[in-house]
Structure formats: structure tokens, C-alpha cells
Amino acid sequence: MATFTDNTQPDTLPQWLQQQARQQGTGIALRHKRLGVWQVRTWCQLAAEVEHLAMALQVRGFVPGASLVIVSRPRPEALIAVLAAQWLGGVAALLDPLEAAAAQVPLLRELHSEWVFAEGHEEIQRLRAAGLAPRLLIYADGRGTAEVSQTGDTLAFAQLLLGSDHRLEPQARAERTAFTFYRLGAGQRIEQQRISHAELLKEGRRLVHSEQLGRQEEALAARAFAAGSQARYLLAPWLIAGFRLNFPENLATRDQDRRELGPTLVAGTRETYERLHAQVLARLPEPGSWRRRLVDWALVAHPGALQRHLGYWLIRRPLRDILGFSRTRAPLVVGEALAPHTQAFFQALAIEVRTWPDPAQWHRPARWPAPLVNGWIEDSTQPA
Fold it and tell me: Which residues, 6 or more positions from 293, have their beta carbon under 8 angstroms from its beta carbon?
């Protein structure tokens, strides 16, 4: 395993994974709630699984510059697939399975990827609807996939981890693309956003330094990394600071899992905070009732000493628990800032939400698909 001196630091995401595995191998890197129980992976276990999957991909022809399309909800297997593709010097292309199939199927058809990670039956059906027959299709959830799992190009994630003990050093390069995100723009034209390892780590270091993030943090990844902002402000800081990253059981349980977990770091969008604000408002007593007057008394913008003390124990602390913000010290909104009334609500709960901009730059590819140059995808949007 590669090591780094005090004067050098890893310059790609896989190298940071190696660094964390070397420095805190038995520490918990990932937790995923499954059937009501939190399942854990240590940094050593995670690095080993990523390396094994990378070797399996390499044996099947995955080369530097190739893209692995990932269509999955939040789960460790999807993240391992991301890091395995990047380990080989490839690109992870993330698509959100919550997007409408009517919009995503044409995009999948245009991408025409040879390498795909699909969460399960529903995502595989989208690939079939797009007429895709990938060179390799990996799935994580085998329920309902019996009719496709017998073909040679379709394999369960677990099958690909049964690799050899040979070592494979990361082939990623700092200036090359780590993630590609796609969307259909005006006129149903494909637009893409590419983010290099160097850019991700630059933004990640800035956030880690500004928010003073360390190994003690707990973060919840409710929407995985289907947006560039999540890669910049959650995935990169996780690898740099070495804290725990948690996946909820599913999107329906994310609020309950957040309350149980009590994350110290929340990196959400404006929609995330507005949804939580609306949930709390729906649970408050009717306006005009004495209970509602008590809530309003406790949540004034500039409380006196009595309001601060009693209001905390009677109102603010219970509301923070309901939101799952009981221990949150780094509440971040990524992208568009909160509306004033939502910002004021969280401030009244002593939750100072800080805005981190999303510097996404979308481009229409000059050529489709992008050609390989010396084994790498030619990319006019990244430095040479």
C-alpha cells in the first residue's frame, strides 16, 4: 500500500482511501442501515473491497479513461463501485434513480455505456428500456433479477469481490476526471459536468479547514452522490478528514435514521432544509392556542435569558431532536441559499446553516462519445 510523507499528500480520491486505511484501518468508514441494523465497514475493509472490485473490472477490460455508469440509491456498493472505477483511472458517471424514467431512459440510450452498476431490478429495467446491453452489468440487489442474472455480462456485486490476493496500485491522476454528471438540457441535448480529482480535493480541503472537520464527525448521505455538490462537499471531505459516512436504510426512513444517528455534519440542499422546516410546521399546535404561543415565545429572534433557558429545554431541544439535529455542529446548505424565513427558523433553533456554493459548469460535449487519447478520454474542459 502506498504511503505518503509529511511533505506530500495524496492527490486523488483512491490515494486518500489508502491513506485512511493505513492510518486508521480498524476505524469505521461506512455504516449502512439494513433491516433495522447498522452494518459497518472499516477503512481497511473498504479499501480491500475497492481494490478487489477494481481488479475484477480490470480483468474484464476496464481501462483508464473508461466510464462506469452508476444508477443507484444510497448504498455502500455504489460508493465502492465509484472508487473502484477511479482506482483504475476511470470515471464514475452518476445518475439519480429518482429521476423520472421518461427523462432518464433517453439519456441512458445516448450514453450507451459498456460498464454499468445498477442497484437492482428497477434500474436494470431502465437499462433494458434504453436498449442497452453493457459489456458488464453489475447489480447490488438480486431481488427480482433472476431473469437477467444468468447471462455472462450480468454479475452480482458480491461475485466480483472474490478476487485474488494480488495488489493493484491506484492508477488515477490528479488532473483527470473523477466524476461526470449528465442531464438533458434545452432541446433534449445532453449536457455534462466533469470534475477532476484535483478540483474535488481542493474544495474538500477548503471545507475541512473552514468547518474544522475531523475523524469524530458523523455524516448522513441520504441521496448518495448523484450531484457534483455532494462529491465536493461530502465525499471528498469524508476521505480527507476520515470521518464516518452513514447511509440510511432507504429514502423513506432517512428522517428516522437521521434522528437515531444525530449526525454532526449535514450537507443538504435548499430543498432538504425546506422539507424539514415544513415537517416541523405541520406538527406544531394550531395558531392561537396556548401551546403555539409557547412555541412562538421560545423561538423569538432575540430571546432574553429566561427564554433562552426555558425555551431550550421546553421547545428548541425537542425540535432539534425531531429534525435529527441534536448533535449537528456543521449544518451546510450546498448550492442555493435558504429562503429568509427558513434561515430564520433554523437560527431560532440555534442551528446556523452556512451556505457553500455549487460551482457547477455544464457543457455540451463537442463530440459524442468522447474519443480515447492514449487510453484517456479526451476532455477539453479539464487541464492537460
Answer: none
Task: Classify residue 20: in a domain, yes or no.
Answer: yes
How do beta strands 354-356 and 91-95 pair?
unpaired
Same domain? 22 vs 137:
yes
* Grid cell locating 229: 455538490
Q: For residue 67, which amino acid is it?
A: S
**How does DSSP assign 277-319, residue by residue?**
HHHHHHHSPPTTSHHHHHHHHHT-SS--HHHHHHHIIIIIHHH
Complete edge-to-edge strand list for the sheet that includes strand 330-334: 37-42, 28-34, 244-247, 218-220, 265-268, 330-334, 354-356
C-alpha cell belonging to residue 13: 480520491
Q: Domain limits at 258?
A: 251-356
Residues 311 and 333 both lie in one domain: yes
CA atoms within 13 A on the CB side of 70: 31
Tens digit of pLDDT at every position of the chain (384 positions): 444 444 578 999 999 999 999 999 999 999 998 888 999 999 999 999 999 999 999 999 999 999 999 999 888 999 999 999 999 999 999 998 888 888 888 889 888 889 999 999 889 999 999 898 899 999 998 776 665 544 458 899 998 987 667 789 999 999 999 999 987 777 777 888 999 999 999 999 999 999 999 999 999 887 656 677 889 999 999 999 999 999 988 878 888 999 999 999 999 889 999 999 999 999 999 999 999 999 999 999 888 899 889 999 999 999 999 999 999 999 999 989 999 999 999 999 999 999 998 887 788 776 544 433 333 333 433 332
